[in-house]
């Protein structure tokens, strides 16, 4: 009577212990097997010893985004050849790049040395102490690693406007390095449609461009009336978090509204040019001068839509001019031109110097020297004193470099000339770069958070769901609240 | 009269089929085009110059496409490595979560389906509530927890959080399934001297193999198709699964035709499984637990 | 015969009763509930009582502050209404189309097996892929529907489908497309339990299709339909993936459901405390819905 019970109790015990062991063991094994590869970097300082690990055992980590990774890889191969022995691990981040990098930085940047950033993110991360400034990037030799250039060389080779973009808003030190440059918010054109509207002549290659935004909108409304296009204008009102707020600030500044003052207090209000701009926007939406579906699209859609050739004017990056001139994908080619800065109220856009940051985990001097070396190669000059990577990118992709020496290189000029609608456009591009600037308030950490919050508000305002007054009042409230929240 | 009825049935069948297929057809269409054709007005309903280039480059190969009399050269997409490793990771996660879910759902489903015990109703209710827990609500707590115990950006962390989706659903399905199995077979086994546990192991589970198979397939597919946790917890890490690649392709580096090809690529394994094992899912009997298990 | 099979009462304190066996079996699920349900609920609640500045890693207790801000938010009712609206749309679409398709699949005709496979297709396409695909279907410039209408001459300029007024309905259509197959097969299983003789008898009595449905089919199916209603509505209320990938809450806040807004607060605006507060409000709503489910089922049983 008691025996079967004993047997079943024992069996149960075996099952229980066995099952638990399997689950725990399996779980532990899975856990360890599935850990992300950890770097074997030792973080203790090795300044006192003179023997350095092999670079292959301690690679530099460079996280890139999915744009032309083949080019980046080729450039890094060149880097490793020039500075052999050297090891760089390149990882492609397919996702919200800034958020991923931020997560890695927060977690201590164990496997992140070098990454891309814009001005806003660079400032945000620098303020939080997760990245370093480049003022310790000086020529020096540690072991067999030699850093060739100084940050002062970079400063000397950059125009003042571009250099200013790199300076941190908190302490004025350069907190990131220049990777590429673009003006964003300038207007590209479809000359064929402009011709149909009477604003251009594609044979003589002349055009009557608007001098400011109100004139731009007037031209578009006129073209709509003439039946040139049902909706001639593509505004950046899409569903990307940063776009709409950004172009609002760009246009407001062009109209003479500084948006924020030096203390980051909002100066736009219901009776400033910002309000006029929003009223114009409501008019554009109401009359469908800009297609209403724009509110649902992404940046990529913006490019595809313009490529269909159905739109006369569109707000884009300067480098996308080359995309639109590519007949393989664009129906606008070769009639795409760009509106030059005719007056100070012209649609000029902001100067965006996108760049690369150096993360800030504990590092040996030797490792830091290697990182500096990589940074200099990638953003400045190579071992032989040439702007190798900046020029390579420009000639192969049209992505602009901020260095005048690169822009004036005959190969680069030939490349640009071969792509543009008319020779004059080369000058227009240059003028735009010289005219566009970046407002200081973009360096404030919470500014991009504010811009993100504005997107649904601005969309509702443009649709007419909320009034211009209500929208501006809410935006002001948000800005003031954010400033208070992040006040030190 | 009967003839008209048959005609109506066939028309409806065709309409239903068309409605089910159109979205997938549209992406198949886009995936065989080059960007040039996508940006045309009106949009092409069938590629004028069909090409495999998008598939090749999304999988990491060079490709060429002939558009009219021009040849376009493509480089491997920057997303290719993320797509490939994503598929591998998604598969690993799917297999593991299926094993874990079955290990927990089978005994639990059996207990609920066959036995009465204290607090059974309360537990049943809690289980039901867990099913309607919005995933977005539990992401932040787990984000913080995983960050602390270093499970953020790992496959095992993802598997743990996936159980929150799969276990309530699969327990519920199996519960009803076990309840409808003939109890006489079990009783016979017990009479023959089996313990409850060995009866479960030797008799009940084999009897329920069809239902268990269904649950396994469902769990696998649900895990493969899960987006929110994969995106918010693992995106950008080496443990990234396949879904996070898609918002990246929408919002960051633009590539419409590549996106279409990548979507179709991600659908192929799921379609294959649905085709092969579809009969399990289509014959699934979801039985209501409260009534069939007698509360 | 040892009579082991039904041991309701134990004679020794160490023997295993039916109940004890069941309790041992459910240990894993209790662990699951504690870790994956109780913990996040507790953490979320605590988080909702704080003001969190994510980038500075600061956290400050503010008691009910977040909830007050939520109630006072002029858009709060809007998000709630959008959620209810889309839940209603999806439930109606799913139930009616699933019922129709299930009835269709219940008939015998050539190609039925093929149709079964085709009908399963939308469910195999994940919810997020549904969002991606429908984004391109609905696109004003390069979308399928737009081009179809243009080519067939019904419109002569681009048609905006995702308008601020009707975007929620179109997002609901996309979700319903994806979710319907599950309910189809659930209802089909129910349909197949209806004895054939009843149909024959009804036909003999001269009942038309509709009468046959209401007198024979519906009574057998009523229960399954009710469960489907509740299943579909609960899933619809927490649908997030398709909204994120189709419209991102837009245009404006037209498709900003509660779950979208929670995502927006937590991961875009980085106000985790507020996100947790909204989460809790949504949880309360889901709890009420779930309780209703349980109550209805218990009543039916009696």
Describe the overall structure.
The complex is a heterotrimer of chains A (488), B (295) and C (302). Chain A has two domains: 55-181 and 353-411, D-Maltodextrin-Binding Protein, domain 2, CATH 3.40.190; 182-352 and 428-485, Periplasmic binding protein-like II (D-Maltodextrin-Binding Protein, domain 2, 3-Layer(aba) Sandwich). Helix content of chain A is 46%, strand content 12%. Chain A contains 19 helices and twelve strands. In chain A, strand 7 and strand 8 form a beta hairpin. In chain A, helix 9 packs across helix 10. Chain A is globular. Chain B folds into two domains: 2-74, no CATH class; 80-292, MetI-like fold, CATH 1.10.3720.10. In chain B, strand 1 (63-67) and strand 2 form a beta hairpin. In chain B, helix 1 (2-31) packs antiparallel against helix 13, helix 7 (155-179) runs antiparallel to helix 11 and helix 8 (183-191) runs antiparallel to helix 9. The radius of gyration of chain B is 24 Å and the shape is globular. Chain C has one domain (66-281): MetI-like (MetI-like fold, Orthogonal Bundle), CATH 1.10.3720.10. The two termini of chain C are 38 Å apart. Residues 1-14 of chain C have low confidence and may be disordered. Chains in contact: A-B, A-C, B-C. At the A-B interface, helix 1, helix 3 and helix 11 of A face helix 2, helix 4, helix 7 and helix 12 of B.
The CATH topology of chain C is what? MetI-like fold
Query: Which stretches of chain C are poorly predicted, pLDDT < 50 over at least 5 residues?
Result: 1-14
Under CATH, the homologous superfamily of chain C reads MetI-like
- Structural class by SSE content of chain A: alpha/beta
- Counting DSSP H or I runs of 4 or more residues, the number of helices of chain C is 13
Order of helices and strands of chain C: HHEEHHHHHHHHHHH
What fraction of residues of chain C sit in β-strands? under 5%
By CATH, the superfamily of the largest domain in chain A comes out as Periplasmic binding protein-like II
């Amino acid at each position: 009577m008691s025996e079967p019970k004993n047997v079943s109790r024992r069996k149960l015990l075996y099952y229980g212990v066995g099952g638990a062991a399997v689950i725990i063991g399996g779980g532990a094994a899975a856990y360890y097997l599935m850990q992300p590869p950890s770097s074997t970097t030792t973080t203790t300082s090795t300044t006192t010893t003179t023997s350095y690990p092999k670079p292959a055992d301690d690679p530099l980590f460079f996280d890139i985004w999915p744009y032309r990774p083949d080019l980046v890889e080729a450039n890094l191969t060149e880097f490793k050849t020039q500075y052999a022995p050297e090891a760089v691990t390149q990882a492609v981040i397919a996702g919200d790049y800034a958020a991923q990098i931020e997560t890695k930085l927060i977690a201590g940047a164990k496997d992140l040395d070098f990454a891309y950033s814009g001005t806003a993110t660079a400032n945000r991360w620098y303020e939080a102490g997760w990245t370093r400034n480049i003022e310790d990037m000086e020529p020096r030799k540690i072991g067999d690693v030699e850093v060739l250039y100084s940050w002062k060389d970079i400063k000397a080779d950059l125009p003042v406007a571009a250099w200013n973009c790199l300076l941190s808003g908190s302490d004025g030190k350069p907190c990131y390095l220049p990777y590429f440059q673009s003006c964003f918010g300038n207007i590209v054109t479809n000359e064929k449609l402009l011709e149909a509207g009477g604003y251009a002549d594609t044979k003589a290659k002349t055009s009557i461009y608007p001098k400011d935004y109100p004139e731009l909108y007037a031209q578009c409304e006129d073209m709509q009336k003439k039946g040139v296009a049902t909706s001639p204008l593509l505004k950046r009102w899409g569903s990307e978090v940063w776009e709409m707020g950004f172009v609002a600030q760009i246009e407001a500044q062009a109209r003479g509204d500084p948006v924020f003052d030096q203390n980051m207090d909002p100066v736009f209000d219901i009776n400033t040019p910002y309000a006029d701009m929003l009223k114009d926007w409501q008019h554009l939406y109401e009359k469908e001068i800009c297609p209403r579906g724009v509110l649902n699209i992404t940046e990529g859609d913006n490019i595809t839509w313009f490529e269909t050739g159905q739109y006369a004017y569109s707000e884009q990056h300067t480098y996308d001019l080359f995309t639109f001139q590519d007949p393989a994908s664009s129906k606008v080619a070769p009639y795409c031109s760009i509106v030059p800065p005719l007056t100070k109220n012209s649609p000029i856009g902001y100067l965006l110097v996108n760049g690369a940051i150096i993360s800030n985990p504990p590092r040996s001097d030797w490792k830091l020297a290697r990182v500096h070396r990589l940074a200099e190669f990638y953003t400045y000059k190579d071992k032989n004193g040439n702007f190798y990577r900046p020029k390579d990118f420009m000639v192969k992709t049209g992505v602009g470099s901020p260095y005048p020496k690169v822009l004036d290189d005959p190969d680069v000029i030939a490349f640009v000339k071969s792509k543009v609608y008319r020779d004059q456009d080369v000058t227009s591009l240059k003028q735009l770069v010289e005219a566009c600037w970046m407002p200081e308030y973009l360096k404030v950490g919470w500014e991009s958070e504010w811009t993100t919050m504005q997107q649904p508000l601005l969309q509702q305002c443009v649709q007419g769901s909320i009034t211009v007054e209500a929208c501006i009042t809410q935006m002001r409230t948000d800005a003031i609240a954010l400033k208070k929240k992040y006040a030190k | 009269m009967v003839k008209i009825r048959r005609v109506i049935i066939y028309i409806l069948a065709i309409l239903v089929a068309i409605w089910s297929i159109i979205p997938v057809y549209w992406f198949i269409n886009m995936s065989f085009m080059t960007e040039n054709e996508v940006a045309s007005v009106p949009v092409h309903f069938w590629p004028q110059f069909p090409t495999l280039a998008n598939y090749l480059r999304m999988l990491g190969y060079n490709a060429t496409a002939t558009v009219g009399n021009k040849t376009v050269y493509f480089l491997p997409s920057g997303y290719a490595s993320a797509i490939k490793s994503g598929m591998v990771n998604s598969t690993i996660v799917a297999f593991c979560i299926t094993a874990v879910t079955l290990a927990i759902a089978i005994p639990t489903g059996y207990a609920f389906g066959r036995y009465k015990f204290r607090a059974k109703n309360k537990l049943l209710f809690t289980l039901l509530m867990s099913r309607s827990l919005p995933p977005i609500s539990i992401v932040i707590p787990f984000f913080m927890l995983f960050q602390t115990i270093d499970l953020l950006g790992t496959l095992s962390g993802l598997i743990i959080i996936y159980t929150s989706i799969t276990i309530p659903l699969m327990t519920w399905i199996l519960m009803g399934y076990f309840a409808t199995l003939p109890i006489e077979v079990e009783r016979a086994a017990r009479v023959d001297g089996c313990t409850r546990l060995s009866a479960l192991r030797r008799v009940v589970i084999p009897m329920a193999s069809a239902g268990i198979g269904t649950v396994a397939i469902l769990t696998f597919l649900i895990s493969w198709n899960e987006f929110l946790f994969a995106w918010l917890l693992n995106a950008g890490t080496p443990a990234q699964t396949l879904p996070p690649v898609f918002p990246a392709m929408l919002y960051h580096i633009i590539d419409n035709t590549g996106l279409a090809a990548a979507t179709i690529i991600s659908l192929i394994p799921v379609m294959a499984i649905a085709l092969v094992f579809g009969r399990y899912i289509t014959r699934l009997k979801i039985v209501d637990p409260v009534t069939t298990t007698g509360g | 015969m040892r009579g082991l099979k039904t041991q309701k009462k134990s004679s020794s304190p160490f023997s295993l009763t039916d109940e004890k066996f069941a309790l041992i079996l459910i240990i894993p699920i209790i662990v699951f509930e504690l870790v994956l349900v109780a913990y996040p609920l507790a953490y979320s609640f605590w988080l909702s009582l704080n003001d969190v500045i994510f980038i500075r890693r600061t956290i400050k207790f503010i008691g009910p502050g977040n909830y007050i801000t939520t109630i006072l938010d002029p858009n709060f009712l809007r998000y709630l209404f959008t959620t209810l609206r889309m839940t209603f749309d999806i439930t109606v679409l799913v139930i009616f189309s699933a019922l129709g398709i299930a009835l269709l699949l219940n008939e015998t005709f050539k190609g039925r097996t093929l149709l079964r496979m085709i009908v399963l297709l939308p469910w195999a396409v994940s919810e997020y892929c549904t969002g991606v695909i429908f984004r391109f279907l609905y696109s004003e410039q390069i979308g399928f529907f737009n081009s179809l209408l243009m080519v067939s001459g019904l419109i002569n300029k681009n048609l905006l489908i995702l308008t601020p007024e009707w975007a929620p309905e179109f997002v609901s259509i996309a979700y319903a497309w994806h979710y319907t197959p599950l309910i189809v097969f659930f209802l089909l299983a129910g349909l197949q339990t209806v004895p054939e003789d009843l149909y024959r008898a009804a036909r003999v009595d001269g009942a038309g299709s509709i009468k046959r449905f209401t007198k024979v089919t519906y009574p057998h199916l009523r229960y399954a339909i009710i469960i489907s209603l509740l299943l579909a509505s609960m899933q619809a209320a927490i649908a997030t993936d398709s909204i994120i990938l189709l419209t991102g809450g837009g245009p404006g806040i037209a498709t900003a459901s509660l779950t979208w807004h929670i995502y927006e607060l937590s991961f875009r605006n980085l106000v985790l405390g507020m996100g947790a507060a909204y989460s809790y409000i949504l949880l309360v709503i889901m709890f009420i819905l779930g309780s209703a489910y349980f109550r209805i089922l218990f009543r039916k049983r009696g």
